[in-house]
Amino acid sequence: MVVQDGIEHKIQGALHPVFLEVANESHMHNVPPGSESHFKVTVVSTEFDGKLPVARHRMLNRLLQEELAGSVHALSLHTFTPEEWQEKQGTTRMSPPCLGGSKSG
After folding, report:
1. Is 70 in a helix, a strand, or coil?
2. Residue 24, helix vs strand vs coil
3. What are the distances in angstroms from CA 54 to CA 31, 77, 80?
4. Fewer CB in 10 Å around end: N or C, the chain?
């Protein structure tokens, strides 16, 4: 969980989220056991107030550029203000099944 811990640490330090969940979804893909390559990140932060979703995603992509240039192949981002999170009652959509690699076939 080295990569996952690093992602969590960077987001905590930069965005001071009121809620953060970093889920390693690598097991849902055609990768070796124990991989840290596919993540679903849910972040609720006041830092997102007044920002469109694309700006929020850019913030996270810049913050995690080292991970994205390295072992992280896929990053699913779910970004909310505290008010938006409350409206969604603290839920996000489930990730779709992987259709790539040998599983597409």
Report:
1. coil
2. strand
3. 29, 10, 12
4. C
